[in-house]
Design brief:
Strands 15, 16, 17, 18, 19, 20, 21 and 22 form an eight-stranded antiparallel beta sheet that branches. A seven-stranded mixed beta sheet has the order 2-1-11-10-12-13-14, sandwiched between helices. It has a seven-stranded mixed beta sheet with strand order 7-6-5-3-4-8-9. Helices cover 33% and strands 26% of the residues. It is globular and about 70 Å long. The chain contains 16 helices and 27 strands. β26, α15 and β27 form a beta-alpha-beta unit. α1 packs across α2 and α2 packs across α3. The protein is α/β, with parallel strands linked by helices and 526 residues long.
């Protein structure tokens, strides 16, 4: 089956009375979920929603969110998924770009739509997970069990528009096809040996959809999904233990917070078989700390990818802690593992200009740092209504395209990919390029350092430092200066600034917002 809607329907029919969703103790079976999806698809069709119509979906993960997205898939409409954590102004920008015919939003999103005058062209306004006086209730559209003839969906037809986090520029809408979603489902199942009937705690909306489509029970924890780095650890640990969950997906910031709590209170998670963390590099000390709660055989996987290409590479905690972490500590970058099946990855020379056509001559030799470029069935081929952004990020290759990740890295002799930071974040000192992740990894080994960020100020390499609680900046500064001089990769860093708490990306609370830090550093040095 080449479309994600048919995959969901087949899975839901097979799973029947098994539990699909648990939220706040309320359980929804696959049978009930399918009935709601079919009824809502029919209700939307009767309300004038047509195949190909774009529909913004702004709601917290839960039954109504999952029903809304799969009903739109079933209808052949195109859900526009925008993470609320990207902020009010960026949300308005995304909605202008998407120009949706339908707006499905929670009462909070409805209020924001009113204030921001979002999506004025929407023909239908539906309130999700609540009530709103000027919107049609989602429950009224799917309250009566019914079905209607749904269109056949071509694998290459547009399935959804997913907006990027915008952590290094304005958010852009990556176009997902049905074939792309289907390929992701197949790849995730094979990579992690995911089995129907397992239970997963999903702390990121997209993974709640994947869980259900893969036949797992998805547990929606009580948390603010726009601020995973501030989660109450007990509200993650309790559902993991209560439902004996097999799987957890968590951003590095959430993993760090829960791991610190687990270490302090001696928490054990004996039923957890599989843990995935993505959104930013995961520090070895975070992996080591969280591993103490798990059975010794359990891997913490750190898949590498982006909204436009997910997944690209994979590595587990045993290989990181046992082999690659010491190399990272010496400035090698962060190893993100081997390229997954169905994806081709190459390294090209760093270039800030567009590249129109692919040529094998663009590829750099083994071990050279350059921009990571990927091609495959899980790679989005364009941005929605953004030809300039598409031209900068895509390289034509025959009838297909290659995607420029905007990330820097290299391959080692074992065929593993090493991540060296964002292309836009590189710093040049005396005509010598410095890459953020290799430099920062050296300084992050100091036990008093929570994290660091390399920025450029007036041709000077400046290291911003966030310390662990109780550490003394004056003492640490001298130690960091000495540490940096031990490695060629970090010897040009002589200026250290201590920041009380880094600004981070608004989606995962994990990527350091280096643009803001650079402005702060410049003001501190003036």
């Amino acid at each position: 089956m080449g479309d994600v809607a048919s995959r969901f329907v087949e899975m839901a029919r097979r799973r029947g009375d098994a539990v699909a969703i648990i939220r706040g103790g309320e359980k929804t079976t696959f049978r009930d979920l399918l009935q709601d999806v079919e009824s809502l698809a029919a209700g939307l069709r009767e309300a004038g929603v047509n195949p190909g119509d774009r529909a913004a979906v702004l709601a917290a993960p839960g039954r109504d969110f999952i029903v809304s997205v799969f009903a739109l898939f079933r209808l052949g409409a195109v859900p526009v998924l925008i993470d609320p954590g990207i902020g009010f102004a960026n949300m308005g920008h995304c909605l202008v770009e998407a120009d949706p015919a339908v707006f499905l939003g929670s009462p909070k999103a409805q209020m924001a739509r009113l204030i921001g005058r979002w999506a004025p062209s929407a023909r239908l306004n539906v309130v999700v997970d609540g009530l709103w006086p000027t919107a049609t209730s989602l429950h009224s559209l799917c309250g009566t069990p019914r079905s209607c003839q749904m269109p056949a969906l071509a694998p290459e037809s547009m399935a959804a528009i997913l907006f990027t986090s915008g952590s290094t520029g304005a958010p852009k809408g990556a176009i997902y096809t049905h074939a792309m979603f289907a390929a992701q489902l197949d790849l995730l199942r094979a990579m992690f040996d995911i089995r129907e009937g397992e239970t997963s705690v999903a702390t990121f909306p997209l993974f709640a959809l994947f869980d259900v489509a893969l036949g797992m029970t998805t547990v929606i924890p009580e948390m603010d999904f726009t601020r995973p780095g501030f989660v109450d650890p007990e509200k993650i640990i309790r559902p993991l233990q209560k439902y004996r969950a097999h799987q957890l997906f968590a951003s590095p910031a959430l993993l760090d917070r829960v791991g610190r709590y687990g270490e302090k209170y001696g928490v054990a998670l004996p039923d957890l078989r599989r843990l995935m963390s993505a959104g930013a590099p995961v520090a070895a000390k975070i992996l080591s700390r969280f591993s103490q709660m798990l059975d010794a055989s359990v891997e913490i996987y750190t898949p590498y990818g982006a909204t436009e290409a997910l997944p690209v590479a994979l590595i587990g905690s045993s290989e990181i802690l046992g082999e690659t972490a010491p190399k990272s500590a010496e400035g090698a970058g962060v190893c993100v593992g081997r390229i997954v099946a169905g994806v081709e990855a190459t390294i090209i020379a760093i270039d800030d200009r567009a590249i129109e056509e692919w040529s094998p001559g663009l590829e750099l030799p083994l071990g050279r740092i350059g921009e990571i470029v990927v091609k495959g069935t899980v790679v989005s081929s364009e941005y929605f209504r953004q030809p300039d952004a598409t031209a900068m990020a895509k390289i034509r290759d025959g009838t297909g395209v290659r995607h420029r990740m905007g990330d820097l890295g290299y391959f080692d002799k074992q065929g593993r990919l090493w991540f060296c930071g964002r292309k836009a974040h590189r710093v040049t000192v005396a005509e010598r390029p410095l890459y953020t992740v290799p430099v920062e990894s050296v300084f992050n080994t100091h036990p008093a350092v929570r994290r660091t960020a390399l920025v450029g100020v007036g041709g000077k390499a400046v290291l911003c430092v966030e310390l662990e609680a109780g550490a003394e900046p004056g003492v640490v500064a001298a130690a960091l200066r000495e540490l940096g001089r031990r490695h060629p990769i970090s010897r040009d860093v002589e200026t250290f600034l201590f920041h009380p708490g880094f600004p981070v990306d608004i989606r995962h609370n994990a990527k350091i917002f280096r643009e803001k830090l650079a402005v702060w550093a410049a003001s501190e040095l003036n």
